[in-house]
Amino acid sequence: MAMPGLADPNFIKSVTCISEHTKDGAVGIVVNRIHPGLNAKLIFDELNIACAPEAEKMPIHIGGPVHVNELFILHGRPFPGDGFLSINKDLALSNTRAVLEAIGRGDGPGQFLIALGCAGWGAGQLEWEMRENAWLTTPCAMDILFTLPEADRWDHAIKKLGIDPDYLMDTAGNA
Fold first, then answer.
1. Which residues are registered as beta bridge partners of 94?
2. pLDDT at residue 132 above 70?
3. pTM of the predicted model, to two decimals?
4. Is 65 in a helix, a strand, or coil?
5. Other beta carbons within 10 Å of 64
6. I need a surface site. Which of 73, 114, 149, 161 has the fewest CB within 10 A?
7. What share of the chain is helix, strand, coil (3-state, %, to 5)?
């Protein structure tokens, strides 16, 4: 979760699910920003993928400022046969047409969000930002990723740490 002092407009009060973090960098999907004016039906139509009528109500998330023209699907089980990045035993990141087609048919993963773009950090960048007090971390929570309204996700994620967001400061201290 972004700390209140994080001034980058791409990440103000953002909740980002880190999908991969290695010595070479990190990648994740912002889960609490909705793309204005887009819905899944528009995406499915553009890709010539058949979809159920409820696709018109599926939001498209702004996954981050990197690869903004690429689709990413953050999802729970069932995982596709291949072409996915396992985040943990219950969560994966995909960007295959097969997953989109399954979602369009209504027989894809039970929980998912579709995002345009992702968040990315170079080697050591995320670690540096954490030392600079830009981020708080907590284990993934499926309710925050998929169930809660996007506007409530940051507050609820902070509260899961036992912190009242109203008292959260953007400066670090020590005793």
1. 73, 84
2. yes
3. 0.92
4. coil
5. 23
6. 149
7. 25, 30, 40
Residue at token pair 């600079």: 132
Computed over every residue of the chain, the mean pLDDT equals 91
Task: Please compute Rg for the chain using Cα positions.
Answer: 16
75 three-state secondary structure: strand
Buried b (16+ CB within 10 A) or exposed e, 141-163: beebbbebeeeebbbbbbeeeee
Report which DSSP code applies to 143: I
Give 162's contacts (C-beta < 8 A, 6+ positions apart): none
Residue 4, classed as helix, strand or coil, is: coil
Query: Domain 16-167, what fold?
Result: VC0467-like (3.40.1740)
Which residue has 């400061």 as its token pair? 169
